[in-house]
TrEMBL record:
Transmembrane helix recorded as keyword: yes
Protein name: Glycosyltransferase
Entry's transmembrane regions: 12-34
Lineage start: Eukaryota, Viridiplantae, Streptophyta, Embryophyta, Tracheophyta
EC code: 2.4.1.-
Entries under SUPFAM superfamilies matching the protein: UDP-Glycosyltransferase/glycogen phosphorylase
InterPro entries, alphabetized: UDP_glucos_trans, UDP_glycos_trans_CS
Keyword DNA-binding: no
PANTHER family: GLYCOSYLTRANSFERASE, SOLANIDINE UDP-GLUCOSE GLUCOSYLTRANSFERASE 1
Keyword annotations: Glycosyltransferase, Membrane, Transferase, Transmembrane, Transmembrane helix
Homology family: Belongs to the UDP-glycosyltransferase family.
A GO molecular function held by the record: UDP-glucosyltransferase activity
Amino acid sequence: METVCDKKKLKVIFLPFLSTSHIIPIVDIARLFAMHDDVDVTIITNSTNRDSCRGRSIRIHTVKFPASQVGLPDGVETFNVSTPPDMISKIGKGLSLLQGEIEQLFQDLKADCIVTDMFYPWTADAAANLGIPRLMFLGGSYLSHSAQHSLKKYAPHHLEMTRLQVPDWLREPNGYTYSKKKSYGSLFDTFYDLEGTYQEHYKTVTGTKTWSLGPVSLWVNQDASDKAGRGYAKEEGWLKWLKSKPEKSVLYVSFGSMSKFPSSQLVEIAQALEESGHSFMWVVKNRDEGDDRFLEEFEKRVKASNKGYLIWGWAPQLLILENSAIGGLVTHCGWNTIMEGVTAGLPMATWPLFAEQFFNEKPVVDVLKIGVAVGAKEWRPWNDFGKEVVKKEDIGKAIALLMGSGEESAEMRRKAVVLATAAKTAIQVGGSSHTNMLGLIQELKSLRFEGNCLP
């Protein structure tokens, strides 16, 4: 017997965190849900962005960030590499002021399910009060979250980490919780062939439901306009430069949207790149006056030799990584970039800095063996330079192995290509992530039927 619920679309509300590295994957997951005709998607955000829902029918519900109430100028409402330290707490306060309004929106929009970032722990109680499931998006790998959960008794593989590589919230618990236990389940941007062992371990040790839906960037960004728009970047000559380079000859260097380095470290990176003998493309975020002068001189020099290309600010990373000229990737081990590198079939030089990045380095280097560590040894807060400076000799060794012609280098590249094939298979009909997505939607529909519908 057909019910009202059979005809009603499943209403799923998404709440991203105000940081680019968190916004991009959760919006991609929202677009993934919206690919299904029987799912109605709304994203709650503080600003409208034409790229947020490219190619998908997704409603954007905008809430005004209370900038003036917390002493911030208009437009300062996200966390990024240039956010001044004195504004960080004010943005956090502004987010807390929005809690009541967002909770009311969940009710007014008649959500059947909410999907929120892990940095909104209060949404677990909000969902419970409404009697609907809350799915939490967990940035990072299954390995990183499993290791954080059971650092001393991790089972599937033996991992070695120094105390300095462990995030500060594990060294000295600060009372913050991801509210995993209060959620119906969690979503990860990964796939079974990449992390199946860790996925099973995570489910066992946490006792929670979880779904791997990745690679979400590959799944929802199917054409060049999608890929170019992701990250708010413009084409400024990089493509022409790459087309002039032989296949697999260029090293791509990027440290994500939240990383910054002191001038001393920038000098070491620049010298290592210039002395490597390989062509390179470097995405630079620093905009300090002293750094600009040094880097501008460096840019002139490598441009004249046609060995290097600097992109200032944002880069269309998906398009760059899939270009045939790119042969390797230097990464801060942010999970978004690792997933994009895996999808592109690229070996990586790993340089973790903060958050869960030292954990993310482990599967790349020690388990999957598609990368080489640059040698970073000290975890630091995202908005801090830290004390460690990795020397050009160590950077150069990693680059030489990554881009070299020896047997070890060739084996890394071979394994990376195999994983890229597995990534593409995961999102095809019958693949692990495709099956997980269909199963998740069906489960959410069943919950709505059991909780809210009568025949």
